[in-house]
Sequence to fold (992 residues):
Amino acid sequence: MNDFERVKDAIDLLNLIEAETGLKMKGHHLEECPFCGGHDCFSIKPDEQFFKCFQCDRSGDVYTFLTEYKGIEIPEALRQAAEFARINLTFSEKKKRRLTKKDRIFLDAAEYYHQQLHANGGSKYFVEQRKHSKEALSRMKVGWSNGQLSRWLLEKGYTREEILESGLAREKDGSLVDFFSPGLAIFPHFHDGKVLHITMKDPKKEKRYQLPSKVRAKDWVFYNQSALYRYKELIIVEGENDLLSVMGAGVSHVVGLIGQVSKDQIKALQKHMKGRHLYLWLDKDEGGIKQTRQICEALRGHDYNLRVVVHPGEAKDPDEFIKSLPEKDRRKTIRMLQEEALMPVAWEIALISRVDGFENRLKALKSRGVFRAVAEMVESEKLIYIEKLKALGLTEKAILEEIDLSRELLQTIKTYFASLDNKRDADPNVIASMIFKYFNEHGRFFFDKMDNVYLLYQHRIYTVGNNRPFNALMKKTTILLPTKEPGRSVWESLASDAYNNGRQIDLASWIHTDRNTDTIYVNLNSPNNMILKISAKGIEEIPNGLNKDGILLKSSRKILPVNFLPDSDMAEGLRFLKELVFDNLTCEPEQRYLIICWLMSAFLLDFTPYMALMKFSGASSSGKTTAARLLSLLIYGSDHLGDPSAAAAYAVASQNPLLIIDNLEHDDFTKSILKFLLLSATKGGKEKRTAGTESETTEEQPKALVLITAIEPFTKPELINRTYDIDFRFRFKSDDFVEDEVIREIIKRRDLMLSAIIKFLHGEVLPNLRERKDYINILKKEYRNHSKNRTDEFLSLLMVMLNRLLNYIPYYDEDHSLHGVETGEKEIRKRWIEYQDAKAKDTEVTSNNILKLLDGLVREYLIKMKDSKLEPEPHSSHADPVFVYIHPEYMLEVVKTQPQVEEDENGEPYTITYVEFIATSSEICQAFDRFCRNNGLRNPYEKASVFSARLSNDKHLLRKGGWEIISAPGKEPYFKIIKGQRYWKFRKTIAK
Fold:
């Protein structure tokens, strides 16, 4: 057995993780994941010496934990694990830690100071006065000085020269004196198994000296430096007490500046925070504002996701603010502050709003780059900031002029034309170079595999060439037109420059799926033009268009920017999804699960060959429109309910995740809308002529979930079997529901909820897609021929989601006897099928034209039979006498049997009667035609061939409506064939 195995067998992994993190086991999980901060997701199996987080997918043994959590190498992890297990290992010189004498002195000094933590006033200062948690103090090995360090180091065997060289002591009157005098708070700065730096604070505020920079390690950057490399998001605070308070609240992804922000700290952030989330939570004073602005300026660009945390109230710093909160609310409040953190431009506007005088505010807006920042935003976000700027006293016209950065290019071209004696002498290549230079600085050029050239500018994608959007952009920025020289030549020259200097990409809509790797790329209009790359391996933020995968996504103009929170608590986000959306859907609880799973499938539409439409049905006060609004707010951040034309519906559905058609009633149905809905469900597309061309066409394919709200049912069978129809009822409405409050909370928690959904899909759904086969088998065996069987593959995907979602949104309440025993999955999916079957039967039976006409005819025959007071008579088709009647107009011979008494399952008697007739398709169509004329209706079956085709397709509906087509052996589906004439036999069962 080697050293690694011996130490691993001897270690208590649970004790080690609790000791290193300060976190405790609660039930089956650590109270939070040390890596992602998630709750109820980090499990430890002591018997197997293994840990796993089911939220961020971190897993491994003791060595994996130590290397990833502490940022150390494997040899050092072995040494520390052995030390924890009290096993002495003999390392060869090659394996010894590369620690200098000074490194060891700093480590021993940190341990000594920590031992003195609660002595000589240390406890009074840290625990009683500063109110820090003992767990945070222990985790950071905070210490207290007593002036005896030098003596202790000498006793450990270090020489005077070594101690002096370390900088932790100085010589005075021939004796060693500690650098840190007695009664000081001591903060060792650990990283990679070393102490890089030691800082101090004087509770009496008399001494302010610190270790000189020549003494601390050159690679020191931050207090709690390991967090810089460990987490996907990072909070920056100023001082040691700020950091201890944040950490004491249960938040580990925090580092401290410890003084003024330095060049080395800026460089470290620029290097390590690309594609990650950085939250600046500095003091509220001028110094904190100055440092916040300094970091924002240094990290301005597309690679950084930067937010500024602003806590409410008068507290001067994070430490003071956190101490003002109840302990139980501290972690939740910090997370809320992160969710509500401001983009730098919003933070600047908030500061400028306090400046006196309009001219001073305008000057500040220009000097702090606010107008330029707004100009680079996506359109939906830009509108929000225009409103914020208008609140400062600016007119919309003035704002639009300030954020129109293209004025620079326009002025450059005007200056060029002014330098010419004759505009006809203008060189198209020179002008194209000017245009290329400007747009290459403010945007990016790309080309695809088909050699089409694109420009990404202000978050919008333009096809470089003679088309309406690009022509409009060029006219605005250059005053050139493609129909007038030098415009036409400039266009061609620019396209060539862009092709020669651009990058090849794969252009897609707001979402793109690589089915070879089951990787999803999503553009949620995140700050700095970052897109999400989601796979079973992880979630990564990458630059749009400038990534190694060659993916360029269009942006949805409707989606308000989403700030993905990589270290957010997925369970917490799904809890808010339940409270704010799920619980406020006024329909059956089982159908709420269907709606939520359907909504989340917006990110997975490329994983099924077709999808299902969703229909919310109900009266005007049922809550169906409110439910649609809540879904829109979650996906878009705003209300996007509408009544689009078919053309508008295609455009919206091809560029956005969700289309909501509100109040689509029977009179609003056109052939174009019907075709759009069918193409949306079947993932078909329609060709349209490319704008600005005579012959080129492009395919416009709906790639969105489509939700319809309506009172009336669908009547088209092809729609009914592709639509999940859910009834909304006022009785399901919660008594304490206040729509405005819920809307406000959804907007507030939207980043958290969408982050949770994305993490749920990554961690719970994508790795388990193979389970769809199991659910397909269940659908085929248990629910064969159910009403929505055309959507089985899509439904199986929703069932995979349901299986995992029930872990976060339980079906059974805690006081239910099955809580914790059964998930309720079988009951829910059974209810999904039965509910839709019942809805489909009601809708199909009542809306089917053949059924309506057959029932209408029989109804008139029965009335005539009753009025004629017929007597039973013998008939060749029946052994017993029957009632026979030939209608003088419809000319069909109808036979009605005498009532027979039978008993139901409970022994209750009921009567049953059969009505039958035999006729050809032509005879039936003629009867339908006369019946429709008599009743002011239009006969949809004027041709016998149309009736026969529809009848073959609708047999199952006739059975649901009580009709049966009787066929004779060898003549199916006909009852008899005489001289080429094919006769149908219809039988209607009437039970009373």
Q: What stands out?
A: The two ends are 83 Å apart (CA to CA). The first strand starts at residue 25 and ends at 26. The mean pLDDT is 89.
